[in-house]
Fold each of these.
Amino acid sequence: MSAPEESHLAKDAPVPFEEYLYWANYQPTNDNDAASKPGPEHKTVPPANYTGPDNQSDSRALRTAGWISILYLIVTDIFGPFSTPWAFAQLGYGPGIAIYTVFGGLSTYSGWILWRAYMALNSDRHPVRGYGDLFLRLFGPAARHLVNVCQSLQLLLSVSVTILSMGQSLSQISRGLDQTSAGICFVVCLLVFAVAGAILGQVRTLRRLSWFAHGAIWLNAAIVLICVAVVVDSPPNFIATLAQYGPDFGPGKQITKFGGLPPPGQGYTSGGDGFVGTLNGVMQAVCAYGGAMLFVAFLAEMRRPADFWKSLVCAELLIYVVYVFFGLFVYSFQGQFAMNPAMQGLSPYRWQTVANALNIGAGLVAATLYSNVGLKLLYVEVLQDVVRAPPLTSFRGKVYWGLLMPVYWAVAFIICVSVPMFSFVTGLIGAVFIMSFTFTLPALVALGYSIKKAAIVDDEEQAVTGSRPRYRFVDSGIRRFWRGFMERPWFNGWNVVYFLCALATCLLGVYTSVVALIAAFSGNSAATSWGCRPPV
């Protein structure tokens, strides 16, 4: 390859959007994907002396997962029905069903957006390895770095919340039948799972992790069946609700359910009434569908990314049906006493213990998945780019992975011990990160790709499709943006509305979650930072 082209295609050199389309169209990462790539329709001609990308072997080495394996991983990533009864307690029957239906449909749409953009922009020459790579291609390096930092933080917080959920389960198990003994110190319960996660996290590939994910799906299904069977004949766990929500949720209170939003002063457990309680319920629905941030990472390890839509549709349909059924059923029997997570609101100790034990197994797999993708993101995007760490497929890379994984889990442990309020922390994470990655940012991806693709005119395409990439643009700036926008005004207009609504919901969720956290630490809750007393 000639010197000028080497310079132009250097790793740190700015690459025009049109060049990403050029290489994706000429050289898809899988020969079977060529016919299904939604990029340029024309066939491109490779440079005469093109010899293939230097990173081709590393890019293909990670591609081992089939669509069935990715289906298991999506379900493991998103599937979390155990917050849905609590969300229905904040929203009531009608609004709860509406919220879960709307967000289920929108999360599927977001997944479709990310898949289409990935298929159009990914190639061996410029592989898309994470969420941030899409923003690099559409909005530049600064956007990529911001997205990667936010995604890394969100995955770390997801591991923290999962440790907290498993720790609460172990704490309930250790306190015995009457739940009055001291049991294992709560901090120790959390530490047990931090250590276990650091060990299980040594599994590096998603294909191998999908074996565990398959088992985790059946563990979660078993918990759903246990909860459904137990709540029919047993009262709520008043010991747990009294400890976590305060004196208004102790024994002797009548179970109430509402078709619409619960009126002020009734049914709320989220640190506030009315508006605050409703928005915290909405944020739980957001968290329930918050898996889109991992979709690009899943695509990057698929043998045939064109099959991703099968994984997406099957997973989303299954998840939606279980969410709505489980939330409605448990709320119908427990009303405002529904706990988050639901299995910790079961009153018979034996069934509560069985469900908690299963939750520990499923939660450990989910947290391992988050830590796997989170550490890969940090390693590939930070260590390899900044300090030139060796590839993960090399011996030294495997050693680095083994040493860094315990550090990752240690940081997650410190975070969850410092803020041990499960429902309110998940609400804040949902508002700040999950809402953004699942709804707000995909709308930007759709807008960026649609406008930039539509702005390419025939004269420019002829310049790009010669024997080597060359770029002569007919216009730039606002004029080019507006021309691209008006090529598909209805589609682009819808995504503008989608983006603005998601952003507004995100900001409202942050406000209500902060209010709930302040109320939770006002002295009415059992949860304390770095304490032995459990929050349930």
Amino acid sequence: MDSWNPPESGPFVGREGAVRELGALVSGRSLVTLVGMGGIGKSRLAARVAGECGPEAFAAVHWVPLWSLSGPSLVTSLVADACGLSDHSAGDPVDGLAEWIGGRRVLLVLDSCEHVLAACAALVRVLLARCPGLVVLATSREPLGLPGETRFRVGPLDPDTEAMELFAARAEAVGVRWTRPEEYVAAADVCRWLEGVPLALELAAGHLRKRPVREMARLLRGRLALAEAPDSRVQPARHRALRTTIGWSHELCEPQERLLWARLSVFRSGATIEDVTRVCRGGPLTEDVLAGALDGLVRKSVVTLSGGRVHLYDTVREYGALWLAELGETRATTTRHARRFHELARTAEDSWWGPGQAEAATRLSACYGDLCAALEHLLATDPRGAAELAGAVGFFWACSGHLHEASHYLEECLQLVSGPPAVMARVCWALGVVRCLRGEYDTAARLAGRADEEAVRAGDATLLADAAYLRGLVMLLRGEPLNALAVADRALTGPVAGAAAAARCRLVRVFALTASGALRRARAAAEALRDDSVAAGEHWTRSYTEYQLAVIALFEERASDAAAHSRAMLRDKRLIGDAFGLGLGLDLLAVALAALERGEEAAVAYGAGQVFWEMVGHPQRGTPELKPLRQDAERAARLQIGDGAYEEAYELARLADPFTTLETMLAG
């Protein structure tokens, strides 16, 4: 079963009957939606149900945190990412996702659909029609409204049993234990006053360190009585209970904690402590005061701190956003947020040629939702800033498979921004790389031409070199190695470019020399570039030099060396999370294994590689010179072990987790 990451927020309490009923529903229905108010426990219940589905029920379980999106435009991309699809094709992303799921038995958990309901419904309608083994388990404050949808209403916990169990567990977590009968009576009163709403109980428990449970019960009784209004029949009591508890929790916070709560509402992916400090500091929130306020919010259960990242419940975030608007700070805080993630993207770009490359790629992947939110804000308020950010993050997203997202934002920037030349050159270059990786070579060539024109206007040698890299890449993939070699040579003998751009041009030169048959020169150039990459602590360029050294070794009939180079490539690609490169490397390793007469292992490598190629949906598996090597190796492997054994090993690898198979191949 594929790995997935449901929310972690303490032990699961109660709802055993609901878990059993939902388990039966997801085994027999195609669309089940957990419907209920915010804070009622839909996500936790969905996580419990999905977590109990074993591999005999589903081949894969995928968790999609839709709450991280600020709008509907990237719903399909987020679902694809959660499913492990890094679609490099030029087609409709919905088609690519449907083909990737295919007929497999898959459970797709769409968490928090309400703010992107129409986009979710449209996507689910298509996927269910085309993927017969797909089951969708959604959580939302309102149903998706699709034919055949089974709606499961999630209500509060039983106030006398389940709610009391949850409240006592959360109290113990903050160091409070009740020993006297009157305390248990008061705790039971709190559970009844709060109508068994889990989030309300969590927030109330967060105040027990400073407010004894008997005092809490008295205060809640008074506040909830005041909350009763002439129109209270319109709104269920549990809605008033949660609203009152959040408001009460807000009032019990110190002023600095309330201000931090409001400012934290701008984050989408969870935030590191450094992110929180950079975005939320200011005014009364000095760095020391902010640290204390954050500690207070964690103690009061307003925010959770896990793995060094700060998270807010959706309902708590919404309340904070309302207060941020009330304070008149929404624009200023979202601008600081966008500035922070723009800075992170620039730092990652500057770290590309160096030991921070893999860490930067991981960091940008972890804050994906916040990068999207920053881009949305800048597109509305500062299009040039959006173009600078999109240009900085575009190549990272292309390398890690976020091609549709990169294309979406880069195209928006091209439509909205007309200068300056340096910014436009970077946007055109990044979009050209995306188009090239999607197989749209004519469009990529046009974008390379425009990037070159803008770079000339800017007088920037690095931008000129990157435009040359893009032109050379297109030529290589079209099967024009001599033209690519000429472009790379001109760039490398021209004005001195930055190290990363120069390395990319050197890489084009290596590929072109290999493809044109100049193997000795290609090997020398590849080894020199690899040594420079190793010295710099860089992985992306190094991985492709290992790829080329493997290809050269195969042409020179040095199969053992080719296998070693292929494994070195795969180790680097694994660090960066490049599915395209992993498919390429496994194909190359299979060729080497077949040359070593290890036909069964070659079949396994091909099968695992096929999974990665299906992930990216790319029509061309590498540069043209690899195709005949791959075909000859497959024929050789079949002859070595027989067609039946080959097909069996290949299919078993295709059905297995590709990353597990990858680890086995690397150890081999």
Amino acid sequence: MSEKQDYDVGVTNADAADRESASDMVSGGEYLEKGLPADMAKDLTAVEDSDVALRRKIHLVNNAIDEIGFTWFHAQLFCIAGFGYSVDSQMAMVQSAVKTYVDYQMKGGGYPISTEIYFAGLITGSVVFGFGADLIGRKLAFNSSLLLSSIFGFFTGGTSSYAMYCIFMFLSTVAAGGNLATDVAVFLEFLPSKYHYLNTSMAAWWGVGQTIASLISWAFIPNNSCSDPTDCPSRMNRGWRYCWYTNSGIVLGAALLRLFVLRLGETPKFLVSTGRDEEAYEAIMAVARKYNRPCSLTLEQLRACGEVEHTYFDTSKVTSIRTALRGLWLTTRTNVKILFSNKLVIRSTCLIITSWLFIGIAYSVFYNFLYIYISTHGGSTGSSPFIVYRNATIDNFVGIFGPILAGALILIPRVGRRGTMIFGSLSCMAILFAYTTCRTPSADAGFGSATYFFINIYYSCLYAYTPEVFPTRARATGVALCLVADRIASAFSPVIYWYGSQTGSSVPIWVCGAVIGCLSILAFFMPFEPSKKRSV
């Protein structure tokens, strides 16, 4: 029996389960034999666990969301959730842009400690907010993360010692990193299946955030920073503070929009997965009533599906920090079991996490060594900070359009999500290897723009694919695991760079470029193609 056949669809008839292929549509007759609605074949039921009642409820919720269709609420959510992508990339770009000048003023150079603190914050945020979103719901994490990130960002810009800078940057990054773990899940769980391609195109906001951060750095760093690490008092080095203040102000604006304009409620799929059918029904009907859309779903239909398995943690029992931590542990343990519940889901989970691990270390290490390689081979990509930040702005602006193309590619039947990831990874590998021939600032701008464009095709599709193929109850936990893997791998890049740069070796460039190309192999063997079915 092949792995593609060996999975549980929530019924006791194993022979019937073996006949179903995860990659192909299943006939309605087979579902009728199993006592399930015939049109449930439209749903990606293979990724769910054995809870038949939950799958029935998710199926009804999908039908209701599709019946309501795309509304102004979804357009708002696309922008406001998308800004979570923007904030994540803004934090990375701002931290990277100001690091040298913060070191000049407070530390004097040496090992990049602040970079490791930054990655530690991302990892912590992914764990706390990502795992917590499957315990307390998506709403609280979604609404609080940007607000906390902006507040601590303002404090970061006002610090006067390196220790305090690292502490407040860590806290700001925890909130920003946790935000990304919930944004894509929230948007997916409200989105009609016809418009799932927008989940991929939403990553265009990542390029928007990178462009904003590059513009901020370009505006403040060149004319408000010192160039001599031995003489760099605060009065001559205000640029990095202006960057943090401006960026935090933009993030605060997005946080206020989430709190007072969109006013997001809990997602219906999370509510039904925790046995709160009435709240899920009201959440769906609230959208239908507000935009005068038809919705034939009834509360009785949800209740008639039966009771979901009580493997979730009842948040009403939280009376202290101790019980909250215990609840987080129990929920996470249960959800991890769901992500490794049968052979097919295990294969999917392992391939996705491995993809995040590889891209996390390969892309970061490649870029760290790239400019050393170019300089040792007679090239010069930036004669001044102005040129460096100008090129970065151009690169990131072009990167916006990669996810837009990816959103179009996944609509092509023979391409889909996996084909788009294969195209993105192979194209990026080719551009990165060609990048090593760069010798001038103009060539750097051209190769950099092409790199950001193609890597964002891959990244955007991977970001969208990841929550689509994780079960509803464990969706945020699965996304969090992937982000933790990505960020742990990225945290090793400064270490590799620090020690590798002492030897001047060019081996990391060729190894990492090849690893990025190998991501296409992982994508090819991923068992699910969400383009053919609705996510659960």
Amino acid sequence: MHDLVIRNGLVYDGLGGKPYEAGIAIDGATITAVGTVTGAGREEIDAKGQIVTPGFVDPHTHYDGQVTWDPYLQPSTFHGVTTAVMGNCGVGFAPCAPDRHQWLIGLMEGVEDIPGTALFEGIKWGWESFPDYMDTVEKSPLALDVGLQLPHGALRAYVMGERGARLEPATEDDTAKMAQLVEDALNAGALGVSTSRTEKHRDKDGEHTPTYKSEAMELNGIAEAMKRANKGVFQLIADFRDVDWEFDMLRKVVEISGRPLSLTIEQDDRHPDIWRTVLDKIAQANKDGLPMRGQVPARPTGVVMGLTASLNPFLLYKTWHEIMPRTLDAQVAALRDPDFRARLLAEKVEFKEGEISTQLFSWFHKMFKLGSPPNYEPSPDDSVEAHAKREGRDPREVLLDWMAEDDGKALIYYPLMNYLPGDLSYVEEMLKHPNTAFGLSDGGAHVGIICDASFPTTLLTHWGRDRTRGDRLPLEWLISGQTKKTAELVGLYDRGVLAPGMKADVNVIDFDNLTMDRPEIVYDLPAGGKRFIQKTRGYTASIVSGVVAFREGEPTGALNGKLIRGAQARPHGARLPAAAE
């Protein structure tokens, strides 16, 4: 008698080969058979007409606060995620001195757009060091597995105080203290270290993230600590304005540490060619024996705007602020009122050249309706600008009409990064590059303006089934990229493959009917904070360590998840084909 048997499904085992019909037997937290399963299961799932995959591993989330109050880590778990890795981009909540709680919350609020009120209400501080934070997470109820990375921003502020926040260079003593804390965190089970070197990351007061100008000595000191521990991965985001200098500095981190590094790859319209240069340099590093990867998205980094969202294209208009305190119904009425519209459209706003806000609020050729199911590869012919030209109207009039639809719940989609050609050809190039890995969903972050935690579902539905404006990609390759390859990116070799002896994290998916809903605003964060969630239909079951944790994306109440402490080796006795090892 097996604990759980999945029968009759089309198995995509995570290895990238063609699927095959098979049964899967699970006993305890381990897969014990893949193929013909003899004997019954205490629980059985008939997967006839459905696909069976490993559980999805998301290497780039920001649930560092949410994990202490939410066992289910929504919205990622609406999308088949059974392992989430957080602590990315150099921001998080440990280490942290007791008098710096408010400052760290402000940093996370600014960089990752998580309401400070929710963090104040939700986080029950019980730690100072990173190992203590890990202990707190380990004691928290969890429906899925989580891995933690040490955030350089919190580390720098902990060691250097205000000097670190003011971007002052680290001294040799500062660097030595940081290095020791890195080593301690890695030995306690941190999966790695993360940092940020982008001007886009600022705290709630508009100040740069503390790691923005970290110098070579400081980064090399962290690398030396990783070398001594012989553990961990290094994750970062950088602007690469001086691409040769900055990449060489980061390449040196890998040379010193001997540890893998992954970095964000995005196409920015203001600097449209840097991403290709960085990918070329990553390719050369790999030829030279250095383990570097680009983390790439499944679709554009997409800002979602509207009356219910945190952003809309009229936020810089003084007239708009007249209606901001009103109810949603009253705002919709104002958008339809000729007098209000005339006053709003008569107002002139000066936009600063080169600012992201200028793009978001005035580049009408990149604004689209976000329907249900949402279209993440819209044609330029469907933009606000194109509609306005055809109708002979001011594009802002079109925007006001669109925003008032669906009783004010309509959303405007702005593909901020990776959409310069007006399609996903750049993203396709990123996904197919031999030295990249899927990531950047930012689950748990940017909760009022971005809802990219659905990246895993986009990989399956858009790239594997529905794309019409370009080539589709093999489903077996996409699934391997979101399971085996993302797990191994962060040192997890015990999951991501359906084979005897492997960890029993499994998705059963009604692939033919898998559908994403449009994002919607809910007010379920602590202190009534709002956020976007995006649900799906088609994830029949998501299994964590042998137990069904989610049905149709909704939690069953099972809390079988755990904190992952450090890299995980291939389980003894796991039977994978030799080519997969």
